[in-house]
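Help! Submission page says 'invalid entity' but I think these are all valid:
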Amino acid sequence: MEIHKVLLAEDEEDIRKVAQMSLQFRSGWKVTLASNGEECLAKAAEDPPDLILLDCMMPKLDGYETCRRLKLDPSLQHIPVIFLTAKAQETEVKKGLSLGAVGYLIKPFNPMSLAAEISQILEGRDERN
Amino acid sequence: MTEFGSKLKRRIWQPFLFLMGVAVLASVCLTFLLPLTRLSLWIYTALFVLLTGAVALLMTGRLMPSIQSLARLTEEASPGSLERASSDPDELQGLARTISDITTEMREKEQTWIGDLEKRNQAMQQLSRNLQEQAASFETALNEVDSPVCLFEADGNVLQVNQSFCRFLGVSAETLRTRGLIGIVGDLRRFVASPDELSRAAEEIFRKPSVPNDTVFPFKDRSGGLRIYCVPIFGELSSLIGIIAATGEGTDTSAVERLKGEFTSTVSHELRTPLTAIKGAVGLILGGAGGPVPGAIRDLLEIASHNTDRLIQLVNDILEIFRMEAGRLRLKPAPASVEDLIHSARDKAAREAAAARIRLETRIAPGVPPALVDAEQVAILLEKLISNAIKFSHAGGTVRIGADPMPDAPRFLLLWVQDFGRGIPREAQERIFEKFEQAEDVLTRQKQGSGLGLSICRGIVEGHGGRIWVKSEPDKGSTFYASLPVAQSLPPKAAPEARPVRGSDAHRLVMVVDDDADTRKVISRMLQSEGHYVVEVSHGSQVADLALRHRPEVITLDMIMPGVDGLEVLRRLKTDERTRSIPVVCISISDDLSPQALQLGAALFIRKPLETKKLLDAIEKVCQTAAGQAG
């Protein structure tokens, strides 16, 4: 699938910046930012992206709940979701995959290969489909 | 003695009375037989009776005192009293002598017994004194103990309590002794959140007192818990004599585990967040996101990047140790092919090995059965063992990874990693599996590492029920062995997915040029998935030389690289006769450089992000074109 717009939900400003720069620099994707789950849902509804990247631990609405709500929304449920997670939460994320996410990436990520790894996850999903 | 005296009286009187009777009877008979007148008869008879009576009286007078004296003495039976009867008639004297002997013997025995009894009495008194002293010392010691301690008998009666226990319950020792186990458990119930659980546990401890029992019952109105520590005391034949119970405030272990888990998760998250930002920012600068980076600054940034990676590894290791110690490392064993495990670990370590100029070899013995392991954890195990082996090898050396069956323990197989480095001193060989230990500590701290790697390895192997050990000789190298359980068989492999046919020769040698290691890895994985062979190159300056050496069929070239960039690499390749014919697939984020690249001789220009299909199609297309041109 072709990716043009990515919505990234991450509460840490520095990581938002790094991830945004990394994706724009290495893939040319347009990256929209959200600082928590609620903002993510609002921005997704306003301008549906091709891909949503979700941090797990966020204030107001965490990544899991955001993912669950996205998958309940008929107009947003088709958008692939990938979790960005610290290793400690790997087990929880695998649980989160049952909520409909297509994959997860472990922090700290390599900014030079983040886009490539995302592409691989999406390809894997396309192959499975 | 009274009974004996009566018997003696009867035996003496009976013959005497018998003689008297015979005499009277004889007189009566003579009276009737002799021809005498009635008067003379009566006179004879009277005389006879009188005579007999006189004889009887005489005999009685002589014998009775002796008999009565003997009877009395025998009744008294005091030692030596029968000796006074020595002047009596012979029979009685013999009897008296016999009885006297018996009583003398009895007296001697009595004396012996009295002696023994006195000795025993003294010993008992000494023992009693000792016991009292010991009991007093024990009581003093027990009272010195800060923790409330109570000693129960096997039936639940209270044997001893210390003052702390009395203070703890606010009741005197005497009262507690009368209450027994049931009463005391009743007193303790008011402290805890789950009193029924406490009662059940107490019952269980007395029912099955096989081992010391240490349980914490959370308090009902505050944090922490009531800790009850019980030790059974066994007597002969393993019968339960009693139970020592110590109570006090403890920490609820489940709460500790929960806190540990939360702490691990929080620390991990809090450490990772800044590390992610640092690694990301430094990575982007090094990657050229902010423009070309001068050499000196690049060196410094690479130091920062390298140390960030070390810090990340340390955080990961600490997290892994926490998980193991908290028992949260849940293994999911499944049958796995040993070849797959080893080859995958070798491929993963290839880059690190190449950087250290170490050759990786695999030696899998024939007949090694499949392993019943958590493949993810075994991957970590092998990664750490191989990484260690590389770290402690000399440049240009070899590291071997292998597997063997274990004939002596057929339920296990052996994975091993061997290096030919400096080896591990004997005294450090056990210690290196402990946390924060490195054999290098003994010498210098020059090799980097958290010192947690081998401890994690041990946790993984022991978690599988196996064992890890090392054989090492100084200056000859080390071999780490891990025994892991064997699986009966492997599940049937899924049929390989049908892939599009990509020309006559699908296995090509591809040189992947990219300054970023992870991107190289991603591209390599894409190519290897199709069976292509890959040579990775990280610096533009090395491409021409390596292309000459390896003669790849195709080169993928990243355009934006520090130092010698993609266009320059392309120029060098295309101006050298020997490399000009190798097709080059240029990869870039934008098409900006496409015209220049194509003009310099690039076979194809593709845009990021890469997708496997896009890349493989490109490779196949340029190779076929090149083959067509050559033909």
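Support: the input was valid. A stray whitespace character was the problem, and the output above is from the cleaned input. The first helix of chain A runs from residue 13 to 27.
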